[in-house]
Every structure is written in structure tokens, then in C-alpha cells.
Amino acid sequence: MHDVPLIDRLAELNRAIQATAPIGADGQDAVPNLEELKRGLDDMRLSLWGRLQAAHTDDVRGFEEKFRIRRATELCVRLTADLKAQLMNPAHAEFADLWIGVVELGKTIQAAREREGVKHP
Predict the structure, then answer these.
(1) 30 close to 21: Cβ distance less than 8 angstroms
(2) Which of 14, 107, 74 is nearest to 66 (CA)?
(3) What is the dihedral of CA 34, 51, 75, 29, to 10 degrees?
(4) Rounded to an integer, what distance in angstroms lies between the CA atom of residue 112 and that of residue 120?
(5) What distance, in Å, lies between the first and last C-alpha atoms of the chain?
(6) How far is Cα 68 from Cα 26, in angstroms, rounded to an integer?
(7) pTM over 0.70
(8) Which tens digits make up the pLDDT trace of 40-76?
(9) Domain ranges in the chain?
């Protein structure tokens, strides 16, 4: 048996998840053991994260920082694009907390960069 590349396995898992509707046509859960599925996915995520960290043992902290910053940037870029394309409701209640968090993050980044003597872009 040959080894299937991890990226192919992840793509297969993503297709399976996309094919699974969370709510059936009758209004019932299409996934009977949804909580069990959530736990299983979380376990897989943690396992994958552990493997990624193990591959970067020379600088685990640097890897984690880069990963978190890139992920946050990706989410912000996607939310911005969706709002510009009017794909999301700007009045959604969750945006108030996000806005507060983003403003606070911006101020904190600026203060930390100034403290460390990093020049502004």
C-alpha cells in the first residue's frame, strides 16, 4: 500500500465535510452524533497541530507566532472582502465585538512595535 500525501487526505476530508449538510430537509440533524463528530474533528486538529509543531522543533515559538499572525491576517482579509462584496450583514451583532478587538489589537501592535523600536511601514 502506498502512502497518500497528507494534503490529499485533507482535501478528501474537506470534500466529505462539505457534502454533509448540518440540517436535514426535515429540520433534523443530518449528522446524528454531531457532538461526537465535533470532538473527533477537534482531536484531529490537535493531532495535526502537534505534528506541525514537531516539524519545527528548532523554533516552535516562531512557528506558532507566524501561523497565528498569518491565520488572523487571512481571516481579516476574507471578512473585509466579504463585507465589500456585501456577502455579510454589517449589522451582525458579532461585528461589534470584532471591531473592539481589532481596534485594541491595532493599538497594542503599534505600542509593542514602538516599545521595540520597530519602524512603522
Answers:
(1) yes
(2) 74
(3) -10
(4) 11
(5) 51
(6) 39
(7) no
(8) 888 888 888 888 888 888 888 888 899 899 999 999 9
(9) 1-55
